[in-house]
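Hi R.,

Here's the chain you asked about this morning:
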Amino acid sequence: MFFSKKIEPIALDIGSTFIKLVQLKGSNRNYQLMKFGMIPLPPEVIVEGAVMDAGRVVDAIKELLAAHKVATKEVVISVSGSSVIIKRVSVADMTDEELAESIKWEAEQYIPFSIDDVNVDFQKLGAGATEGQADVLLVAVKKDKINDYVNLVKEAGLDPVVMDVDAFALANMYELNYDIEAGTTALLNIGASVMNINILKDGMSIFTRDITVGGNRYTEGLQRDFGLTNEDAEKVKRGESVEGADKDQISAVMSSVTEDIVAETQRSFEFFRSTTGSEQVSRVFVSGGCALIGHFTSILSERLEIPVEVANPFKNVKIDPKKFDAAIIEESAPLCAVAVGLAIRRPGDR
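And here is the predicted structure, written out as tokens:
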């Protein structure tokens, strides 16, 4: 979004617990998986999207690139969280060239940061509700956030050619793999510390929001209540048994956290309806680590009273079984929604 430059870059989704690498070849919903890999990050290296230990992240990226023999230097990355502002606004209708000239001044009234501290971009959506107006999707990201992530990949020897936003990458993943249906669809990517929400109406984004809630709440609850190490807490989250941890008590903690995250989701959906005047969401796709938590999607569906499905970002991607282990791809798929969405971005597109 903020950078443009040739073909088949790699995509890196730099999360709090994993860095995901995906490279796709192709176009127009006809893609083939070329590279795929993940590497875990120690806790506290990235916290709620803020890079706390750049050196260890750079080392992890280098290790991931070496393990998968990545030759290209071009990379697509993304950001999310409180440093990202996305607004659908109405402005005087003008050409893209004119809007590019004036968007910085238009943006000032919608952004809670100094305009000099952000990079601004936009996408024209079409005619506005009143004559002479146009609907525009306005995006602003704090420059220091962009610089942090750009510097990480540059220090790892890569050249960032596209900078995107997690919520938009989710929409790209959805468009690649699923038929756009009439009505309102919510895409939720619930990672370790941030939930990305992108609500689409007839395939067009009408509401986005990032919330600082995620799977780390399970880990923290298990560590607090049972004195588990981070490693053991992560095992319990995945449904594995750990010595000294009572299954019934663990189930109670897990259920409590699930209810908290579901309640946060419900509040966001209520906020969406109250601020946009739109009808209720008709279906939900969930990705991220929380999609792998036992009963999470069924409880979310029950509370929202609408269908909830775990997104499969590789659903419409050709995968050579001789090059990739199908079981690993299937197990990892819910974690890779943003990475796949980034992997179809090309320098110069919008």
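One quick note: The chain has a mean pLDDT of 90.

Cheers,
M.
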